[in-house]
Amino acid sequence: MTGLTVPAYAKINLTLDVLGKREDNYHEVSMILQSINLRDLVTVSRSGKGITIDSNTAAIPADYDNLAYRAALLLKERTGFTEGIHIYIEKNIPVAAGLGGGSADAAATLIGINYLLGLGLTPGELICLGKQLGADVPFCILGGTALVEGIGEKLTILPKAPTLWLVLAKPEFGVSTAEVYRRFDKNKVTERPDNAAAVEALAREDMELLVANMVNVLETVTLEHYPEVARIKDRMLSLGAMRAVMCGSGPTVMGVFGGQKEAEQAYVLLKEEYPEVFLTRTR
Ligand SMILES: C[C@](O)(CO)[C@H](O)COP(=O)(O)OP(=O)(O)OC[C@H]1O[C@@H](n2ccc(N)nc2=O)[C@H](O)[C@@H]1O
Ligand SMILES: Nc1ncnc2c1ncn2[C@@H]1O[C@H](COP(=O)(O)OP(=O)(O)OP(=O)(O)O)[C@@H](O)[C@H]1O
């Protein structure tokens, strides 16, 4: 069995702004996405007939409902490959956390099978397929630092962000992205990110300006319905974070720390307080 293992990196939102709602109920966004070192490992191998999938956890589906399975099926439909494929996911990214775990697995599956079977799709063609699977999948194929617009399909590669030491803390519950967008009310937004300033900060490698512009407007929804998320933000700041911002639609909060040592100290304390806590950095 020939196998290929592809890292599937989680993403954070350095910024997230919602510009409006479309006819199909999707929202136009403008956000800066960033890959971080926290990752799943997706192994694709030639095996048996058709497509099969499993993982090291019962927390994600082992059938068509898994976004990685759907990615493989879409690629099969697009290219007509006939080989049997098995997908194995080593899950490390928390589920329904706002970190794009399912999207990262789907992206890694597209990249892995394309390479394993020599299908010859270009990165641009993979991004087009990714778009059909979910709004965060195109970025997960690209990785790095990018301005993401439209509903998630318009990508602009940005200068690599400076290394940011992060502590991520997720409460026990998960959050539905669809529900957060459904409840979003632009009239409740009091602070919006200045994406132009954040892009400028990246170009100038100005960490302070970048950190000052980290804002996520979806906090207006999630913090109202889950006060625990606001408490985690406060706790991060009390532990010395320069900034504490919710990831995607939540409920994970990231604390941005001045350096590795400061982040490690906060991580040790938060580990005692929340079920899922990670020390990581931008990549
Ligand atoms: C919150 C973010 O993670 C920020 O990066 C993304 O905007 C969401 O990306 P995602 O989870 O990959 O989104 P999808 O799986 O495509 O969509 C889940 C649901 O979120 C809502 N949705 C998603 C993206 C978007 N731009 N507008 C939306 O309104 C839709 O109701 C959709 O049914
Ligand atoms: N490979 C996968 N990994 C994680 N969740 C998956 C996967 N496939 C399907 N799912 C389902 O998708 C839902 C959302 O999971 P995911 O971890 O991707 O959320 P998320 O990080 O909040 O996503 P996003 O940040 O893109 O909105 C879960 O309820 C889960 O059952």
Number of E-state strands:
10
- Percentage of residues assigned to helices: 25-40%
Low-pLDDT residue spans: none
Helix tally equals 10
**What multimeric state do the chains show?**
single chain
The general outline is: globular
What about the largest sheet? Answer: 6 strands, mixed
Alpha-beta classification: alpha+beta
Average pLDDT reading: 97
CATH class of the largest domain: Alpha Beta
Q: How many distinct domains?
A: 2
Question: In what range is the share of β-strand residues?
Answer: 25-35%
Keywords: ATP-binding, Isoprene biosynthesis, Kinase, Nucleotide-binding, Transferase
Function: Catalyzes the phosphorylation of the position 2 hydroxy group of 4-diphosphocytidyl-2C-methyl-D-erythritol.
Catalytic activity: 4-CDP-2-C-methyl-D-erythritol + ATP = 4-CDP-2-C-methyl-D-erythritol 2-phosphate + ADP + H(+)
GO molecular function: 4-(cytidine 5'-diphospho)-2-C-methyl-D-erythritol kinase activity; ATP binding
Overview of this protein structure:
The protein contains 10 helices and 10 strands. It is of the alpha+beta class and 283 residues long. It folds into 2 domains: 3-157, Ribosomal Protein S5, domain 2 (2-Layer Sandwich), CATH 3.30.230.10; 165-281, GHMP kinase, C-terminal domain (Alpha-Beta Plaits, 2-Layer Sandwich), CATH 3.30.70. The strands form 2 sheets. Strands 1, 2, 3, 4, 5 and 6 form a 6-stranded mixed β-sheet that branches. β8 (243-246) and β9 form a beta hairpin. α2 (101-116) packs across α3. It is globular and about 55 Å long. The structure holds 4-diphosphocytidyl-2-C-methyl-D-erythritol and adenosine-5'-triphosphate. It is an enzyme of class 2 (transferase).
